[in-house]
């Protein structure tokens, strides 16, 4: 943080963080929010009300804006619109258990939505797997989507915005049934990148973005970004970071791979961190890269009690030893009053203005009063970082899952979700409400008072993992900025309805081995295993025991005018 900027703040130091009185200069003048996955099932206009769990489930959304024409946006999410409903049917079979809502083998989960009017309306284009290029591949999408725009390469391979723009969609992926080159007891998780030159209407076949020589490794939580600055000597390069969960001892280093040819190929992965073990509290997760206007790449991740940043100044060829951006205390899992999994993964963005050396990062820390959003700044290209500034308050509730970006004019935009519980000592239908909030800081100004940008609240109890063991709001949200707008996309359950039978089931199995994540259940299903074999309780059957709109979650975009 520069001395000049710091001198404008009336601040006190409390609990090791800079607590800033919030002013109004960057307050949102207006905000609207709209469903991006509209309709919920592509090609079915009635599906917003007729789709049933888990077909009606979307989460972990991403959004990107065309840098040449902000009328065009692309969004994505973990999207189960092609998954069959729970229980017996033409897909799962007549002998399927009524409570079987598991991921069905060979069905993808990476959704695509587009807008051509600045986010006012959206078109659900289905899954990446619906594209002819994907139908002809050996892979299916497995979610964890991230979308980023950059320049399109010309016929000679040179990047220029004169050629137009190219959007990149990174995703987890796995082999279609019968297509894997690995033994039947192996179910590797790949990382792939597809690209689009027509604002998300059509997409290329998936390019495997990491060498996969060991089927015991599990790649997860990837993030893609593009060097989109014409002033950069590495203009057009694509950077992908992720965590590689290694079977031996479950070591998990952060990795990076680079494409210099528009996503056609990716380099051999480089390891950015030691291979720590998350079971020891020293794991590395939640990585995210960003690129400055001079081509400096900043790869950030959470490691133990720190948010770390490693820097490359030569286009990803070499990386500096990571430095600490700030301390992190993971928020409670679950947040009191709810039952969905959480994390304190950070968001990071570089100031895109030519000549700027500033980088911003945000995450949510656990405090005695609940989750509080903090922001840090480096003004020297990532060498040193400011004291964290707390920009959320008790009034919004328990903060989680933020997004951050820096606009072309230097304005910093941050949005996040926050939960208020009637009774923090329990969870279930009607106990908690989640809303979405925005705060911003114009160049030379101060952080605005958080303002609500969601037009309806979300009850997290209307969401669920496919195994019904917990509520599910995903792991992240994202935000993208233009000079006059900010676009925040989040998981929204305003159209969902809770199910008392599922609430009771979650309480009954709390603390047992049946409480597992969706991805582990998906891997077990791929291997031909029963993911619910160790369930000690009777699982409810949503088609029989729950209201029709149980589990209905959507990807909502808030269009904010700061």
Helix content: under 10%
Largest sheet: 6 strands, mixed
Which radius of gyration do the C-alpha atoms yield? Answer: 22 Å
What structural class is derived from the secondary structure elements?
Answer: mainly beta
Mean pLDDT level: 91
Low-confidence stretches: 1-25
- Number of contiguous helices: 6
Compute the separation of the termini in Å: 23 Å
Overall 3D shape? globular
Strand content: 35-45%
Q: Name the strands of the widest sheet in spatial order.
A: 1-2-24-23-22-21
Count all strands and give the number.
31
Notable traits:
glycosidase; Sialidase; five-stranded antiparallel sheet; EC 3.2.1.-; globular; six-stranded mixed sheet; Sialidase_sf; single chain; hydrolase activity, acting on glycosyl bonds; 562 residues
How would you characterize the overall build of this protein?
This protein has 562 residues and is mostly beta strands. Helices cover 6% and strands 36% of the residues. The strands form 7 sheets. The protein has a 6-stranded mixed β-sheet with strand order 1-2-24-23-22-21, with no helix packed on it. It has 6 helices and 31 strands. The N terminus is likely disordered. The longest helix is centred in the last third of the chain and has 10 residues. It comes from Streptomyces chiangmaiensis. Keywords: Glycosidase, Hydrolase, Signal. Its EC number is 3.2.1.-. This is Sialidase family protein. GO terms for molecular function: hydrolase activity, acting on glycosyl bonds.
Summarize the model shown.
Residues 34-59, 76-98, 262-287, 443-462, 528-547 are annotated as: Disordered. The protein is mainly beta and 562 residues long.
